[in-house]
Amino acid sequence: MTAAAAKPTAMETLLATLDLEPIEIDIFRGRSPQVGWQRVFGGQVIGQALMAAQRTIEAGRIVHSLHAYFMRPGDPSVAIIYQVERIRDGSSFNTRRVVAIQHGKAIFALSCSFQIEEPGFDHQAAMPDVPPPEKLLGEQQIKDQYLAHAPAAIRKYWERERPIEIRPVSLKHYFSNEKLEPRQDVWVRATGPVPDDRLYQAAVLAYLSDMTLLDTSLYAHGTSIFDQTLQVASLDHSMWFHRPDKLDDWLLYTQDSPSASGARGLTRGSLFTRSGVLIASVAQEGLIRKKADE
Question: What is the per-residue pLDDT across 232-277, written as a single tens digit (0 to 9) for each?
Fold first, then answer.
C-alpha cells in the first residue's frame, strides 16, 4: 500500500478527532488534526464537547439543544481536556455541562440537554427555493475558475481538504466589496461516510454548524472573514436539534444576520435536508472588530 493510499481522508480524520479518549470518569482527552491552523476550529470544540457529554448519557436519550461560549482560542498543538458535570438526570431529560481546558485554563464551556424520544406536535418553517447543489459550481470548478486571481486567504481556505464540502448558492461575496443583503444559502455535505450512530451524527452536525455562519454578518458591510484588517471570532453558539438525519446527502444551510453592533454580529441558521425537512436551528454571535492601525 502506498503512503498516499494509507493517508486517512478528511472525514476519517474528523471522526477520529471526535472519538475522544476517556482518561477518568467524566473526563476525556481530545486532540486536533495538524493541518497548519493557528487555532482550533470552533466547530471541532463544539463537536468534541458534545461527544464528551453524550458519552455520559444512557442509550435512548438524544441531544435536543446546546448552548456554548468560546472564552479563549484553542491551541491545536496540545490536547484539550473535557470535564463533564452531570447536572441532572430526570425521567425524561438529562442536563450536562462541559468545560474544555488547555494550559490549565478554560477555553470553552457548553451546556446541553438530552431527552427521551417521544411523539408530539409537529410543524416547521419552509425551506427556501434555491438551486440544487448539482446546478452550482463544485469545489474543483471554483478552484479552477476563480482561485488563480483570488486573494491568498481565499485560496488557502478553498484549497485545503475538508471533511465538509460547501457549495454557496452565490460566490459574489467572496470576490466583491459590494454591500449585500446579510443572508446566504450554502449547500453542505460530508465528504465521506458518517457512521450510522446518532452520537456521531449529532457531533458532525454540530461541527459543520460553525462553518460559514459568522461570515454572513459581514455581508452588509462589503467585507468577509478573509479581510486581514478584521479580527473575527465566534463568541457563543446555540443549536437546537429538531429531527434526526443520517448526513448521507446534501443539506441546505440558510442563514441571515438580523443585527451587528458593538463589534459583534448575530447570525441565525437553519439546516434542511434536500427534501425540505428542517433538522436543526442555529444562532451565533461573533466578534467582528476592525484591528487597530499598526
Answer: 999 999 999 999 999 999 999 999 999 999 999 999 999 999 999 9
Task: Spell out the residues 6+ positions from residue 212 whose beta carbon is closer than 8 angstroms to its own.
Answer: 166, 168, 184, 186, 253, 255
Burial 4-15 (b: 16+ CB within 10 A, else e): eeeeeebbebbb
Q: Report whether 251 contacts 190 (CB < 8 A).
A: no
Query: How would you label 21-53 residue by residue, b for 16+ Cβ within 10 Å and e otherwise?
Result: eeeeebebebbbbeeeeeebbbbbbbbbbbbbb
Task: Give, in order, the Cα–Cα distances in Å from 167 to each of 133, 157, 170, 212.
Answer: 7, 13, 8, 11
Give yes or no: 234 in active site: yes
CA angle 291, 283, 74 (to 5 degrees): 50
Task: Give CA torsion, residues 45, 30, 85, 46, to 10 deg.
Answer: 10
Closest by alpha carbon to 113, among 62, 71, 68?
A: 62
Choose the catalytic residue: 32, 54, 210, 227. Answer: 210
Choose, from 184, 201, 217, 284, the residue flagged as catalytic.
Answer: 284
For residue 292, give the C-alpha cell.
Answer: 487597530
Where would I find the H helices in the chain? Answer: 3-6, 10-18, 42-54, 139-146, 152-159, 198-208
| Active-site pick, 48, 224, 234, 257 | 234
Q: SS3 sequence, 8-26?
A: CCHHHHHHHHHCCEEEECC
Is 54 annotated in the active site?
no
CA distance 35 to 33: 6
CA distance 73 to 40: 7
Q: Is 210 labeled as catalytic in the residue annotation?
A: yes
Model's pTM, two decimal places?
A: 0.93
**Contact predicate 95/113, CB 8 Å:** yes
What distance in Å separates the CA atoms of residue 168 and residue 94, rounded to the nearest whole number? 37
